Structure formats: C-alpha cells, structure tokens
C-alpha cells in the first residue's frame, strides 16, 4: 500500500497541472461561445504544427542560400567598381583615339615639317602606351578591391563561420586605404591634365563659330581671325605654318578629325572625373571596412579573454569540488 500511495502522490502534481491546463482551455472556449453564440456548432480542428507540415523554408535550400549570398554582397564596392571600370574605359579608349586624331590635325594643318613636332609625336605615343598600362592596372586593382569588399563584408557579418581576423589582414586593409588615397590624388592630376586639350579645342571651335557668325561672315575681317597653336607650347615657335586664319580655320573645324577629337577629349575628361569619384567612393568604403575590422578584432580579443577567464574559473570550481569530495 505504501509504494502505491507514493506513486499516486508523485503522479498527482502532473495530473493537477494537466487539469489546470484543460480547465483554462475550457474556460476560454466557453467565454468565446458566450460572446459569439452562433459559433457553438463550429467544429474545432487541431491546428497542424510546424512539424506536421513541410515548409519550403524549414530546411536550408536554394532560396536560403541565395539570401545568404545576397547578404554578403558588398553593394557599395560593387557600385564603385562599376563606376571605376566605366571611367577608366572611357578615359583610355576615348583618349587614345583623340590623341591619334590630334596628331593627324597637327601634321596636316599646323606643322607640315615632321621635325618640328617630332618630340610631340613621341610624347603622344608614350602616352598611348601609358594608357594601355593604366587600363590593365585598374582592371586588376578594381577586382582586388571588390574581392577585399567581399571578404570584409562576409567577415563582419559572420556569414561563413566564426569571425577571425589577423594583424596581417588589417595591415593589408590599411595598405589598400593608403594606395587608394595616392591613386585618387594622382587621378585628380590626370583629370586636370585631361581638361587642357578640351580647353584648346574649345578655343578653336569658338573661333570657328565667330567666323561662321553673320556679323563676320563674308567680310574682310574674317581673314584676320586666327588661331596660333604655338602659343599653347605643344609645337615650337619655328614650326610652319603654326597659325591658321579665316576660311582655312573654318575648313579645319568642319573636318571629321576635329569633330571627333574634340568630343572624344570631352568624354575622356568625363571618364577621368568618374574615376576620381569612384576612387573617393572606394576610399570611404575601405576606411569604414578597416574601422569595422579594428573594432571586431578588439571584440574578438575581449571575448577570448572572457572565455579564458570563465574556463579558468570552471577549472578552479571543479578542483575545489574534487578536494571537498576527497575530504568527505
């Protein structure tokens, strides 16, 4: 009799708890019927739990993988990379063709003797080779910065396991910040330099517009309106003819070489400006990423020290328990 009474006493708390739950549910159902009398004939069906029905999001699949990958995309770095590639492509492609057209205009109209503009031809040829190097370098540099953005974004958001950073990784991020700053300053100079041929061609074009204007067209003063290309310093003063006036200058402005070179220099200048904006954007991104990595490394060091102290405390407690057990 005694063991049976003990088992009954042990079962009483569970049974009483079940009765409380059932009575509470019955009270709620009764209150619902009292408030809404028309729902007494309603048949209640158990709501299937998440374990009873298969959800497409319950198990990791293609959708969750896509969301995880999209969460690790550095959109700011991606926009900066696209802008940098576009700017460098416009500057290099349009600048290369515009320089070739400029040499053709000089040889045909302003400097008929090849010795007079031999230095200028060599400089332009060297600049064309430099353009090839700039395009190749920034193609690789943009990919490296985009990869660094992917790494930093994934590391900070802890998308691929536990976050870990090293002093070498932080130094590499700092080196990219410094290198991007230097390149941004250099491209500011390139942007200013690319505006010089635009200014020269604009002066020639505006002079041609003055010649075509009704006030001066057909008058004797047209032949006195001239453009002396020697004053810009690109050809020596002894170059012949060096200066073009009147109708001859108007004919130059109507050629395809002048029209294409002028507009291509404008596009190349715009591409240099877009590259400067992209590098400034990259500089802000790299600076913020470096700050995130620095803060994350400090937090990681703090968590490591805290985990070590907790482990030491657990070891001390376990040793004290063992000593107490040995005494007893």
Automatic annotation (TrEMBL):
Subcellular localization: Membrane
Record keywords: Coiled coil, Membrane, Transmembrane, Transmembrane helix
Species in which this protein is naturally found: Pipistrellus kuhlii (Kuhl's pipistrelle)
Family: Belongs to the myelin proteolipid protein family.
Name assigned to this protein: Glycoprotein M6B
Record-level Gene Ontology MF annotations: structural constituent of myelin sheath
Broad class of where this protein is predominantly found: membrane
Cellular component terms per the entry's GO annotation: membrane raft; myelin sheath; plasma membrane
Bilayer disposition of the protein: Multi-pass membrane protein
Pfam families according to UniProt: Myelin_PLP (PF01275)
SMART domains hit by this protein: PLP
The keyword Membrane appears for this protein: yes
Region (Disordered): 1-22
Coiled coil start-end: 299-326
GO biological process, one term: negative regulation of serotonin uptake
Transmembrane portions of the chain: 78-106, 126-151, 172-196, 264-286
């Amino acid at each position: 009799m005694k063991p049976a009474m003990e088992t009954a006493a042990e079962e009483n708390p569970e049974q009483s708890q079940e009765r409380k739950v059932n009575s509470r549910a019955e009270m709620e159902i009764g209150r619902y019927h009292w408030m809404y009398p028309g729902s007494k004939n309603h048949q209640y069906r158990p709501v299937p739990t998440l374990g009873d029905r298969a959800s497409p999001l319950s198990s990791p699949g293609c959708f969750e993988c896509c969301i995880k990958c999209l969460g690790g995309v550095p959109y700011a770095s991606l926009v900066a990379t696209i802008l940098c590639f576009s700017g460098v492509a416009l500057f290099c492609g349009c600048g290369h063709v515009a320089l070739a057209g400029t040499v053709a205009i000089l040889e045909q109209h302003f400097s008929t003797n090849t010795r007079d503009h031999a230095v200028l031809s060599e400089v332009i040829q060297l600049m064309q080779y430099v353009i090839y190097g700039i395009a190749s370098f920034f193609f690789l540099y943009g990919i490296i910065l985009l990869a660094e953005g992917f790494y930093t974004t994934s590391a900070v958001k802890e998308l691929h396991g536990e976050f870990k950073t090293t002093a070498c990784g932080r130094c590499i991020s700092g080196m990219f910040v410094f290198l991007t700053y230097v390149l941004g300053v250099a491209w500011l100079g390139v942007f200013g330099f690319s505006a010089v041929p635009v200014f020269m061609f604009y002066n020639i074009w505006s002079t041609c517009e003055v010649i075509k204007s009704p006030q001066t067209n057909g008058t004797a003063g047209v032949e006195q309106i001239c453009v002396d290309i020697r004053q810009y310093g690109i050809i020596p003063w002894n170059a012949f003819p060096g200066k073009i006036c009147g109708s001859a200058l108007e004919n130059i402005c109507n050629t395809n070489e002048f029209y294409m070179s002028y507009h291509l220099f404008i596009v190349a200048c715009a591409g240099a400006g877009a590259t400067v904006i992209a590098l400034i954007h990259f500089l802000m991104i790299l600076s913020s990423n470096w700050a995130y990595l620095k803060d994350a490394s400090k937090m990681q060091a703090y968590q490591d020290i805290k985990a070590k102290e907790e482990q030491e405390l657990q070891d001390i407690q376990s040793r004290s328990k063992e000593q107490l057990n040995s005494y007893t």
